[in-house]
Write a structure and sequence with these properties.
The protein is α+β, with helices and mostly antiparallel strands and 383 residues long. It folds into four domains: 1-76, Orthogonal Bundle (Helix Hairpins), CATH 1.10.287; 84-118 and 173-211, no CATH class; 125-168 and 220-271, Urease metallochaperone UreE, N-terminal domain (HSP40/DNAj peptide-binding domain, Sandwich), CATH 2.60.260.20; 276-380, Urease metallochaperone UreE, N-terminal domain (HSP40/DNAj peptide-binding domain). The chain contains nine helices and 16 strands. It has helices at residues 7-11, 19-33, 42-58, 61-70, 101-114, 139-144, 290-295, 354-365, 373-380; strands at residues 92-93, 131-137, 146-157, 173-174, 183-189, 195-201, 210-211, 224-235, 244-247, 263-269, 276-278, 281-288, 297-303, 306-312, 321-324, 340-346. The strands form six sheets. Strands 11-12-16-15 form a four-stranded mixed beta sheet. The chain has a three-stranded antiparallel beta sheet with strand order 1-6-5. The protein has a three-stranded mixed beta sheet with strand order 2-10-9. α2 (19-33) packs antiparallel against α3 (42-58). The relative contact order is 0.10.
Length: 383
């Protein structure tokens, strides 16, 4: 515990910071270190835990006041465990303070407030760890949904001992030293010759609360074995790049009969050559000729469902966008869809023959303000 950083330093704020500024600092740290944004980054995961711990204390008026006055000892009973003159770690002071008057009342109030740490039952059921993995799919697979095969290494309950860790025909025994609690009390003398009772991990069972005399040979007494899970996972239509799927109960096995953890799959979507996605809408560009733009025509617009025939009007301008309702990406777990927005780009012909150039020039000379009012408006600006 001695290496804990100051909570104000963790959140990058000064002592006396306002509640609003504290929230802003916390949100900034969440964006910086949240595990969903940094999969498989243990360092980010640890920093996020540190940030959550700091915000939990500083955002609580009572905890913050105790922290400002007493430091970590004011809010963490385990702080200073094992140190000379320490005040935490499940420590109970048995010295008599009655002869110290007001000072004795202060000691009683201080020590009584932080003694007696609550310890969890080491034999209580615990959920297994979550497993994270990732898959890559195409743009169209993300739009329409697909199935992917995954392989992950996970801890499974040992079939030979059913997770007990003990050889078949035997069972684990309650530790005779800690009586199944996983911890024992040690008494020592501290400052002013006071007797201090400190709760420490039981050295007989290693804090497990039980002893396995005959470990299972398959799992070595751990109760679990590592195996590869092969599974076909359904990716729902409409999923977007960077989103995750959680499959309940497919993570590491729990301990002491606890439930399995979950399998968390991050989906990475490859970009498409033509389509771009924003939310559930799709955007694309469609090339058309000068003649098609001027006279109008029925063109083909590629969509995720195939080509769609669409009639553009005469006088269509470069950059005009046409909207195909309901031709976008299906919304996750819903029957509705986004739209498709097709922007036309008028192509300019190249490598014209002399005859083609003469015809085009003659055509251009035949145009007047009625045909191209924007050209007249532009030229009038410079008269």
């Amino acid at each position: 515990m001695a290496d804990k950083r100051d909570y104000y330093e963790v959140l990058g704020v000064q002592k006396g910071v306002s509640d609003d500024d504290l929230k802003k600092a916390y949100r900034a740290m969440v964006k910086k270190y949240h595990p969903d944004l940094h999969p498989d980054d243990k360092d980010a995961e640890e920093k996020m835990k540190e940030v959550n711990e700091a915000y939990d204390v500083l955002s609580n008026k009572d905890k913050r006041a105790r922290y400002d006055q007493f430091g970590f000892a004011g809010i963490d009973p385990s702080y200073g465990a094992g140190q000379q003159g320490g005040y935490g770690g499940g420590t109970t002071f048995t010295g008599d303070f009655s002869g110290f008057g007001d000072l004795g009342d202060l000691f009683e109030g201080f020590f009584g407030g932080f003694g007696g740490q609550t310890r969890t039952n080491p034999n209580a059921p615990r959920k297994g760890q979550d497993i994270r993995t990732s898959v890559q799919i195409s743009f169209l697979e993300a739009c329409k949904g697909t199935g992917v095969d995954i392989r992950v290494n996970r801890a499974e309950r040992c079939p030979d001992c059913s997770g007990s860790g003990a050889r078949a025909g035997t069972s684990a025994e309650t530790c005779p030293k800690c009586h199944g609690t996983g911890s024992v009390k040690e008494t020592r003398r501290g400052m002013m010759n006071m007797l201090i009772q400190q709760v420490v991990q039981c050295d007989r069972c290693g804090g497990k609360g039980k002893i396995i005399a005959s470990p299972c040979q398959s799992c070595g007494g751990t109760g679990s074995v590592r195996r590869v899970l092969s599974k076909n996972v359904n990716i729902p239509q409409g999923i977007d790049d960077g989103q995750t799927l959680r499959i309940t109960g497919e993570g590491d096995c729990g301990t002491n009969g606890g439930p399995n953890g979950d399998l968390i799959i991050k989906v990475n979507v490859k970009p498409h050559d033509i389509f771009e996605r924003e939310g559930f809408d799709i955007y694309s560009e469609v090339p058309i000729s000068y003649m098609q733009a001027a006279l109008g025509d029925e063109i083909l617009i590629p969509t995720i469902d195939g080509n769609v025939r669409y009639r553009i009007p005469a006088g269509t301008q470069n950059g005009d966008t046409f909207h195909l309702r309901g031709q976008g990406v299906p919304r996750l777990y819903r029957s509705t869809r986004g739209d498709h927005h097709a922007t036309v780009r008028v192509t300019v012909p190249k490598n014209l023959t002399r005859k083609q150039a003469d015809l085009l020039k003659a055509f251009n000379d035949s145009l007047d303000d009625r045909n191209d009012p924007s050209r007249k408006k532009f030229s009038d600006l410079f008269k």
